[in-house]
Amino acid sequence: MLPSLTVDTVVLAGTGAETSVLLIQRARDPFRHHFALPGGFVDPHEVPIQAALRELREETGLTLHESHLVPLTLRGAKGRDPRGWTVSQPYLAVLKDVLPIYAGDDAASAEWRTLSEIEELAFDHGSILCDAVGRFWPIFQKSPIQTIRPWSVPRKLTRMAIYGGTFNPWHAGHSACIELAATTHNGDLVVVPDRSPFKANDDDTCAWKHYRQCQQHAHELGAWTFPGFLGLEQPNPTCGWFPKLPPRHRSLVIGADSLASLPRWWHAAKLIKSIRHLYVVPREADMDATSNAQLWVHATSRRTQLHWLPHHPYEGLSSTALRQA
Q1: Per-residue pLDDT tens over the stretch 247-274
Q2: Alpha-carbon dihedral 110, 116, 117, 123, rounded to 10 degrees
Q3: Which CATH code fits 161-324?
């Protein structure tokens, strides 16, 4: 059995709080009446980028040129489309201003929605939108288009500290971690939701919805939230990307339970040698394993400064336990 080839297109317009994305409301199942990105199936022998332009024109009336489109990450995970096995090539297009549109083909409606208005999207289109917005974070990757700064993307970051995790669901312990880290770290805090290589990905929550929930909680505490890793289909071990950050941004916030397992992380020695400041928030964890990990950190990297943060009332909370409850 071979997969069907499809295309999807993220069209952004405007900048800052006015950044909007072009969406259609589906007229047919699956996800009838739900909002989705413009797109569809590639015809036999049709070039994918031409299919993306055709579907965009047929469903929204918007005519663009190939030069407007930048390819995003190819997608093909099991279950992404309830109709069967599909592989999609998504694209990103950026316009200066919103343009007139009209619904056509199998779209019940076509409309511009600001990024801050969108709650969730059909299929895995929330993941594609996370991937697209993440491309504009120059700290993590080079922006493919420099003409806009979308909503929720910082203009500049100073001495960034990363707080990574699944955050699914967000709980009071996560908020406590940010508040405690802010009392010690003199700079920006960035929440980085991702997929752990050590945990099953059994959640079908829209990635954009998950990002918005994290973003809202973090914003209340003065922190930023990076969406790009929620747009990936595969896990992304921290060591794969953290050492690539500029040295001034290599500070990491983790819980004591994560510290206990840190020596077993993928390429742990490489990771710890890249960290300038390691902020450890108290969590319920094996005391012997935590002590051994602390000794391992000091023996592996003399440059890494380890900071134990104060105790807090939510040390027993666990996203995994809350999901399974």
Answers
A1: 999 999 999 999 999 999 989 999 999 9
A2: 60
A3: 3.40.50.620
The span from the CA of 173 to the CA of 167, in Å, is 10
For 170-296, where are the E strands, in sequence order? 189-193, 224-225, 251-255, 277-281
Task: List residues bridging with 36 in a β-sheet.
Answer: 24
Residues 6+ apart with CB under 8 A from 299: none
Angle of helix 125-134 relative to helix 207-220, nearest 10 degrees? 50
Quickly name the fold that domain 4-134 has: Nucleoside Triphosphate Pyrophosphohydrolase (3.90.79)
Give the whole-angstrom CA distance, residue 269 versus residue 309: 23
Cis peptide leading into residue 90 (ω within 30°): no
Q: Do the bridges between strand 69-71 and strand 86-95 make them parallel or antiparallel, or are there none, so unpaired?
A: antiparallel
Grouping H, G, I as helix, E, B as strand and the rest as coil, residue 218 is: helix
- Please answer whether residues 24 and 55 qualify as being in contact, where contact means their C-beta atoms are separated by less than 8 angstroms: no
Structural domain boundaries in the chain: 4-134, 161-324
Q: What angle do CA 79, 85, 87 make, to 5 degrees?
A: 100
Percent of the chain with pLDDT over 70: 96
Average pLDDT of the chain to the nearest whole number: 93
| Distance, CA of 228 to CA of 91 (rounded, Å) | 15
Q: Is the pTM of this model over 0.85?
A: yes
Residue bearing tokens 């669901």: 169
* Domains 4-134 and 161-324 belong to one CATH topology: no
Q: Tell me which DSSP letter residue 29 carries.
A: S
Confidence of residue 322 (pLDDT cuts 50, 70, 90): confident
